[in-house]
């Protein structure tokens, strides 16, 4: 959400937001793709070489922390296929951390792989599961017109040498223009980014039906409204703190000007209410 443009919403505006949600909004994306069969079909379109028949239960909005004092991550869609861990993130807006965030997700996934019984028993790092982090972007992250940008670790001096460490990062672009993905994946990306329903594609038609059904789900509606309420509260707290900070800056600036003009620090403090013992600095 664009914090600069965010404002407290009325109940009517909240209801309008709920009714206007599409599959490309992470709330519905996560809810709908909790269905293992639907998630498996999506992953099959992204990774056609993976056997998705062995998909494990899908967890959505899953928070993970490696340590109490370390910032955690929250996976939109997290599952496993055979020995592969897969995380899929919905990214509607361009953020300045979109290229470094996958690294944090890979770190958490790798740690979870180290905890697996298979690796503990064998004691061999070759049993570490492959990991896939996928960002579905409603913008072109690299501005090259591709629908898909796939990354693995390669030798800098010789790109033909792949490290083969099993770490994969994929950016999907709903705004792609090149003929670089399968028709099935393109239809999926068109549905995500443009809400375009491709007639005759059973998977896309099912997703469209699920979105319509979701709007009648009172429990999901309640959860969404609660999320908006929390956002409102956080925004109000931040706005109040911003006003207090602006007032502190103004008092400090006036205090500095009075002292510069010859007034004693104590007199200037008495006049402005500034605490002369404060460590505040106007850097």
Q: Helix-strand pattern, N to C? A: HHHEEEHHEEEHHHH
The helix count comes to 9
Number of folding domains? 2
Return the structural class.
alpha/beta
Which spans of ≥5 residues are poorly predicted at pLDDT below 50? 1-6
Shape: extended
- Would you tell me the overall average pLDDT? 83
Helix % is 40-55%
Radius of gyration: 25 Å
The major pleated sheet works out as: 6 strands, mixed
Would you mind describing this structure in some detail?
There is one protein chain. The chain has 283 residues and is an alpha/beta fold. The protein folds into 2 domains: 10-215; 217-276. Helices cover 44% and strands 14% of the residues. It contains 9 helices and 6 strands. The protein has helices at residues 11-20, 26-32, 36-46, 101-114, 117-122, 183-194, 202-214, 218-260, 265-272; strands at residues 59-64, 73-81, 84-91, 131-137, 148-151, 167-173. Strands 1-2-3-4-6-5 form a 6-stranded mixed beta sheet, sandwiched between helices. Strand 1 and strand 2 form a beta hairpin. Helix 8 runs antiparallel to helix 9 (265-272). Residues 1-6 have low confidence and may be disordered.
Give the helices and strands, then pairings.
Blueprint: H1 11-20, H2 26-32, H3 36-46, E1 59-64, E2 73-81, E3 84-91, H4 101-114, H5 117-122, E4 131-137, E5 148-151, E6 167-173, H6 183-194, H7 202-214, H8 218-260, H9 265-272
Helix pairs in contact: 8-9
Short description:
The chain is of the alpha/beta class and 283 residues long. The protein has helices at residues 11-20, 26-32, 36-46, 101-114, 117-122, 183-194, 202-214, 218-260, 265-272, and strands spanning 59-64, 73-81, 84-91, 131-137, 148-151, 167-173. It is built from nine helices and six strands, in the order H-H-H-E-E-E-H-H-E-E-E-H-H-H-H.
């Amino acid at each position: 959400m664009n914090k600069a443009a965010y404002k407290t919403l009325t109940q009517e505006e909240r209801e309008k937001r709920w009714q206007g949600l599409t599959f490309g909004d992470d709330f519905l994306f996560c809810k709908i793709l909790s269905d293992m069969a639907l998630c498996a079909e999506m992953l099959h379109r992204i990774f056609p070489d993976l056997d998705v028949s062995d998909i494990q239960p899908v967890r959505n909005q899953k928070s993970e922390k490696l340590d109490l004092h370390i910032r955690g991550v929250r996976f939109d869609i997290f599952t496993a296929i055979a020995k592969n861990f897969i995380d899929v993130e919905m990214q509607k807006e361009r953020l300045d951390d979109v290229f470094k965030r996958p690294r944090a997700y890979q770190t958490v996934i790798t740690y979870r792989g180290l905890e697996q019984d298979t690796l503990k028993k064998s004691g061999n790092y070759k049993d570490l599961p492959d990991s896939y982090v996928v960002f579905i972007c409603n913008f072109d992250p690299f501005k090259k017109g591709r629908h898909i940008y796939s990354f693995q670790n390669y030798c800098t001096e010789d790109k033909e040498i792949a490290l083969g460490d099993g770490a994969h990062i994929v950016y999907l672009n709903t705004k792609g223009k090149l003929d670089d993905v399968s028709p099935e994946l393109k239809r999926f990306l068109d549905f995500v980014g443009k809400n375009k329903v491709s007639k005759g594609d059973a998977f896309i038609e099912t997703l469209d039906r699920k979105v319509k059904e979701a709007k009648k789900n009172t429990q999901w509606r309640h959860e969404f409204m609660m999320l908006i309420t929390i956002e409102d509260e956080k925004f109000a707290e931040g706005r109040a703190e911003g006003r207090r900070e602006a007032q502190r800056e103004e008092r400090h600036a006036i205090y500095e000007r009075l002292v510069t003009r010859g007034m004693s620090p104590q007199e200037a403090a008495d006049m402005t209410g500034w605490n002369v013992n404060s460590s505040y600095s106007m850097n």
